[in-house]
Amino acid sequence: MILLIVLVLFSNIISHYLTFIPVSLIQIALGLMVALVWQFEVPLETDWFLLLFIAPLLYNDGRRFPKRELWRLRGPIFGNAIWLVFLTTLLGGFLIYELIPKMPLTVAFALAAILSPTDPVAVQSISKQVKLPASLMHLVSGESLINDASGLIAFKYAIAATVTGAFSVGTAVGDFVYISIVGFLSGLIFMTAIQLLMDILRRQGIDDVIFNTVLQIATPFVIYLVTEEITHASGVIAVVTAGVLFHARESRIVEDSPELKLVTEKVWDIIIYSLNGIVFVILGIELPVATSQVIKGGQFNTWQALFFAFMAWVILVAIRTLWTYGYILFQRLTHKHSDERPGFRTAILSGLSGVRGAVTMAGVLSVPAVIASGAGFPARALMLFVASGVIIISLIAATIMLPLISTDKQPLQTRASASDDIANDINLDDEDEEEFPEDPVRQISEEEARAYIMRLAISKIEELRRPNNQRAAYDLILDYQFIIRRLEMSYRADTVMQKVLDDEIKLRQVAIDGERATLKELRQGEKITQTSYVGALRRIENLEGRLTQVSGHTMPGVINYWRRFFKHLWRDAAYWVHSEDTDRLHAENNLIERETAKAAIKALSEYLSRTDIDETQFDNQAVYHLIVQYRNRIERAKAATLPHHNDDYQHQINKLRVRALGAERTGIQSLLEAGNITWTKATHLRQYVNYAENVLVMSLSDEEGE
């Protein structure tokens, strides 16, 4: 499990740089590499696989069920999700059986059934990129959320027929009605009971966020297990029903427990992110096993198996394309004024949008190893290989075809691409864009807007700065300035940023010269010892050396922290070795810090006031950033000479931080009203400020607890 999680994390790091490759393919490749290089295998307990992977995935789909569009298109959506799945199972199964006669018909049906569900995130990603007609986009998106359940039911029946060797149409229909209705009622009843329990516990004062989050996370596993083991109905339908019911009840305008909502959503994001990634890594690990078993069987070689996988994908695309073309044609005939002409290109796009994903993989990996007679499950290895091949081919085909047919060059997203960007993909700007198609106000990027509101926060802190809170104020301002500099790197032109950095290097050299001169004066006046003088001079020389090799990138925070830690540790060790009077040496160091910082500010002021220097040529932010750094040094040195008042300092930090966040909120509203940012950007910025405020509240709570 540790290795699988590490591979999932590593795949997303690679995906950050190779954005044109779906992260699912990267995860498959990493799993394949681990299996081939280290002969790594994952012992799968198939009975547990559906419970651990399918239950949470489908419950989460139900929780995020978009009601408005799907309810409006409920007829076509349920038609696609049920009838298209069964058509794919029957027709696709017969065609796969004709393609591979050595595969039993029931196994071919099971393979077609588990290949029928589509990845909902991939479908939505493709639909947005290729600009499908609105109704068709909602249709394929809605269908992809529901067809998991129908595909898994058909798959279960085909597997049962293979295991038992018996199949009766009448019995199958009766069983289907039973497991569907009872599964639906089970999800409805158990979810209602769990929600009632949560309400009772909350009224009893058991409203702890962590407790309720764990209770919600456990819900799909409990419902699936109880439905399957006790009622012998469809746990798949039960968890989907439970998810939809939970979403319907929780979709209120004002949340009674917003903290629980936020925590639960983020925990679910982590779970789905991990499960999807693990499934595709396992797929890569299982590929060599399936390939070797197919070859050892002696019936097929590798090229034949690859041909079977490719032709199975072609069959699925053809069925989906013809079904979609028929739907568009029906729309055209029944809506005479419809703009959606029955273009075969649109139908092909819909066919290609049927990317297979985690549900297909989880299902096929759950196929039992033996049947009722004790013999091995027929063609299990070939079934696994073909299903894996179809998943990979569908991902590759979408990745290659999308750039050719899409004007929007965004990379393909799949369920395994789960991220904050996808979770927060809310478009609030459609109406504004239609109403004001040509907005004369300059739109700024989200990074530029963040830098702007942070400058407002700095202005507010400067306004509130007093002699008794200067250290806290300068610490906060310095933190803000480092973030602003990092943001500027992303949105300002390289030439502009290079000029800013060149100016800052020139000004820093002036300041360093002032520091060095004052340090010599302190030594000549015997205000400091030779030990303190040498240590301070070495620090100035190191700083000067770094200026000559600056690359334009700030040192990572962790490295910078440990660099300062070891520098102070080395200095304290030197004090201990060279003198018994460490207190005097510490006092000398504080004196050096104060006086050299003052000298640096004075040197900068004199340099900028010279008649041969054009003060306007320097970036104001660079000058201000440098002065704040030196003022911060002065305040820290002063604080070191006084008795510790850490509580006062932290209290001052918190007060200033609250006021700064208020200034940031005001800045967001100003940018929105001026038209410089869209509603979507404003929402993201407010979310950022809210998160910052939550962190502040958490730190305050920790302090009170202490």
UniProtKB/TrEMBL annotation:
Keywords: Cell membrane, Ion transport, Membrane, Sodium, Sodium transport, Transmembrane, Transmembrane helix, Transport
Keyword Transmembrane listed: yes
Segments forming a coiled coil: none
Membrane-protein topology: Multi-pass membrane protein
Classification via Pfam families: Na_H_Exchanger (PF00999)
The Cation/H+ exchanger transmembrane domain, residue ranges: 6-404
One example GO MF annotation: potassium:proton antiporter activity
Annotated transmembrane regions: 25-58, 78-97, 144-170, 176-197, 270-291, 303-330, 351-375, 381-405
Main location: membrane
UniProt name for this protein: NhaP-type Na+ H+ and K+ H+ antiporter
Classification lineage: Bacteria, Bacillati, Bacillota, Bacilli, Lactobacillales
